[in-house]
Amino acid sequence: xxxxRRFLGGLSAGLCIVTMPSFLAACAKQLPAGAVDLNAxxxxxxxxxxxxxxxxxxxxxxSELTQRGADFADLYFQHSRTSSISMEDGLISxxxxxxxxxxxxxxxIGDQTGYAFTEELTLEAMLNAARTASAIAxxxxxxxxxxxxxxxxxxxxxxxxxxxxEVAVASKLPMVQALEGYARSxxxxxxxxxxxxxxxxxxxxxxxxxxxxxxxxxxxxxxxCTCTASDGSQTVSNxxxxxxxxxxxxxxxxxxxELAAQAVDRTTRLFEAVRPPAGEMPVVLAAGASGILLxxxxxxxxxxxxxxxxxxxxxxxxxxxxxxxxxxxxxxGVEPNERxxxxxxxxxxEARSTVLVENGRLASYMHDQISAxxxxxxxxxxxxxxxxxxxxxxxMRCTFMEDGPHKHDEIIxxxxxxxxxxxxxxxxxxxxxxxxxxYIKNGWLIEGxxxxxxxxxVNIIGNGPEALSRVTMAADDGKLDTGGxxxxxxxxxxxxxxxxxxxxxxxMTVGGVDA
Amino acid sequence: MLEELQQRAQQxxxxxxxxxxxxxxxxxxxxxxxxxxxxxxxxxxxxxxxTRALSLQLYVDRRYSTHSTTDLRPDELKSFVADxxxxxxxxxxxxxxxxxxxxLYEGRSAADLDLVDPGLSELTQDERIAxxxxxxxxxxxxxxxxxxxxxxxxxxxLSASVSSNGFSGSHESTSIxxxxxxxxxxxxxxxxxxxxxxGGPHRSQLQSPRQVAEEALRRATARLGTRKGPTxxxxxVLEPRAGxxxxxxxxxxxxxxxxxxxxxxxxxxxxxxxFSERLSLIDDPLLPRGLxxxxxxxxxxxxxxxxxIEAGLARNVFVDTxxxxxxxxxxxxxxxSNLIFEGGQGDQAHWMxxxxxxxxxxxxxxGNSDATTGDFSFGMRGHPIEGGQIGPAIGEMNVTGNLIxxxxxxxxxxxxxxxxxxTRSPTLVFEGVQFSxx
Lengths: 515, 438
What we know:
The complex is a heterodimer. Chain A folds into two domains: 31-271, PmbA/TldD fold; 279-510, no CATH class. In chain A, helix 4 (55-65) runs parallel beside helix 5 (123-134) and helix 6 packs across helix 7 (253-268). The longest helix of chain A has 17 residues, at 169-185. Chain A has twelve helices and 22 strands. In chain A, strand 16 and strand 17 form a beta hairpin. In chain A, strands 1, 2, 3, 4, 5, 6 and 7 form a seven-stranded mixed sheet that branches. In chain A, strands 9, 10, 11, 14, 19, 20 and 21 form a seven-stranded mixed sheet that branches. By secondary structure, chain A is of the alpha+beta class. Helices cover 21% and strands 37% of the residues of chain A. By secondary structure, chain B is an alpha+beta fold. Chain B is built from nine helices and 19 strands. In chain B, the strands form three sheets. Chain B has a six-stranded antiparallel sheet with strand order 3-2-1-4-5-6. In chain B, helix 3 runs parallel beside helix 4 (209-221). The relative contact order of chain B is 0.13. At the A-B interface, helix 1, strand 2, strand 3, helix 5 and helix 6 of A face strand 2, strand 3, helix 2, strand 13 and strand 14 of B.
């Protein structure tokens, strides 16, 4: 009942990681040396065999789907195999596997969408679903797709040595045990350590009305370490996780030790942690996980569907200056091995990097096909969906801020009384009002320009445009968070990543105590 | 259909046994749902779906694992189950892992929980679209509306479960929901939003489209001119529909797993007076037409009313078979169903007048709590209460404290439980609450 909810927002990484000079250098180094994608660029498309469909079937189903007309239409086949293991009280005594497969069928005409899906991949079931989805349209049948062309994702974006469905459970167990052992050995106050392992091998085939079909194989994994510690008078718990579109090679002994150290440090620091004062004060966002600020304060507000409907606080602000000129914010689908990496989006549009804010000015929204058509622009490769059961929407991928002109120490020293926000559990935004929040699990108090006591459990609330205009400093130490974040929108969750250099926001409201 | 699901679950049990599992609990489910979304005068989205799935809990040589699949082709299923049993053998044995005591399957309620409305299948597509259109029209009559989406969704879910040690049961329910979301243009700059959704297993639980739309519009217009709230301590009046989230945090660690893992502020507190004596909270799985009503839980344990808190006394927590064995606590049930408050009086208007001065909380924005210590900090929106009257909207503020402390300062419980959530929270009044804003 508790574990799923607890980690839905993801815990995050902190300052223990060596800071890289720039984002791309940091990311490139995470690529496993000599990694080969065994299934890349196979001449005959393996996915057609895999889903048990052929080009003639695609054609039949697409014709049925567009029998009453369509501006565009697509078939989204998906098969995911998920596996998890957990260790508690020194025993690896629970494992889970699941297989989820099906196809989602979509017809778009004007701004109307007809959608149906089936988990049964027989021709009959697919034709039934196609008829259901087509019912929203009222026009004449479209000509059948003549020939299909198949494009496979090149495979460098998330290359793995071995696909997860081919990795034996026996090879995972020693890693889980090692992580548990490291965490247990680091501090005598640690009472309990639990470890959860999760991996997924996902295959996708998107076929659209123009006869183009795109296939992709997307790995995903996450490893959590959760600790409970007691000093006799107080019991505290916390944890850390490491996530990405990686293979098993990501979990080197060094990485496991680092994860254990993070989990233990974040837990034991809670013994001394206090609640900061309540009210408005300067907030320093530590490099890395603090990218949650961008996700909530501006990212959602720049998803084009909210702007098309006029409901975003950023609607009608394109081209305007909204932050100091050293602020450049990017949402990218091409950061290697990040959770938000996608070679093709879930509408078959090629992934790319989208500059959202360039030198303080609003530069672009994130588009899916519907909004790109509405605005008369190219899609940005941001059309994503949770699964074949869901329609795609404009979504974030990996959102980060480029490095700024300041230094970390200079930023801390400039704050008389305030806080540093370092690790987070979750955030939220009200799109129209622009109010956003994020919850700080670990941080620090700043008194007289110096870091003093650790702090814990405070919610921060601010207003998006106001907070961006109050970004008064940004350092040169940007990095992406290594923890796993899941973004929820209209009931759909998708994996995302985020990053930030050390940033000062001159005033936000801190949910402290004893004003 | 239920018989077919029962057979599918039974076959899965036999398949797993044939592969070497000693204990098996299998569930087969099927669901159908239809959703209409209508935006700014047009039908925008129609979505129809049929889902089916098979799930398994396996006990192999004292080892345990869980599995699910939507690929039910016989050959694939057979190898899926064989792989699952094989994988389980790779794990470590755990002396506490075993199927539930079959005695706990006994005594299942024979009462009709009234969770199926046969009339829903007669509802036409045109009727549902007409409800959307009516909500849309009422809302768009207000010139401040930027955009509004109205929706109706209905569903029918069936499931059957079978275990290798004698459990067999099935569950069927229907649902229908309607509601609307509104975005308004605020002359002062913002674009406040509000939504209002209502529903349940039966059509008779709906309100008229007009009622739903007017309440949504009232909630949206109440947010116009929102100002930043104050930093102060004072009385908090919690609107019924906002109660579910707070109660969710209160009960997040009220279970044997969290207690056994040392991650619960409930640990060692059963039998103690932990909260205000105004607080009596019951988990009631047998509530007729309840959103989470059931006659057995996910392990097959017969569902019973479970008092969690009695006049502030921590009485019971959720205990499943495994953590019950590990923590040496008798099993109750794995998780919550419908949460009911007892002994409340008066509605929100009554308590606002009684309070005189304080803060009315109408919705949350983010925030979280620590299940081990009970510390919390949440973003909130609402209104000041002055002289018993509601003031202009406030937002961009937090409420912060500790859950044990907060619920020990609960001074009043209303009788106006919110019927459109599994947590039927009434108006709740807390004293000495810390707010932070401007």
